[in-house]
Amino acid sequence: MVRSKFKVFLGPTSVGPFFFLKENIMIKLTQKAIDQLAGVMQKEKIDDRYVRVGVKSGGCAGLNYQIDISDKKEESDRSFDFIASDGTKFEVVTDPKSYLFINGLEIDYKSDLMNSQFTFDNPNASRNCGCGTSFDI
Q: Taking the model in full, what pTM does it have?
């Protein structure tokens, strides 16, 4: 059984279903992920940019996580502020459609001798692919 964080209410108009969040959760980043993203932005000398987290169709499970550096923040974007260990501040933004799939997502950064990568823990996912970058609802 998959827990859903969304409750569907059919409104009185013919517009279609409206989605209401049961709770106001957000995208979470571990301190390691925050520090890694801040380090990338500093290394590339990227100022006044946003870290865009989203979802695209594809991958072996149906949906892929996306992390990009963006210079645009749309009015409809959800945004979350983060501060790295060294005091660097940045904003993570996501579009409303992606947010429906990744509300509650926790992003971590793991590094060992063989690999360094961001990992995703999504409470909304019913299954994940083996590589960890693709999921299904």
A: 0.73
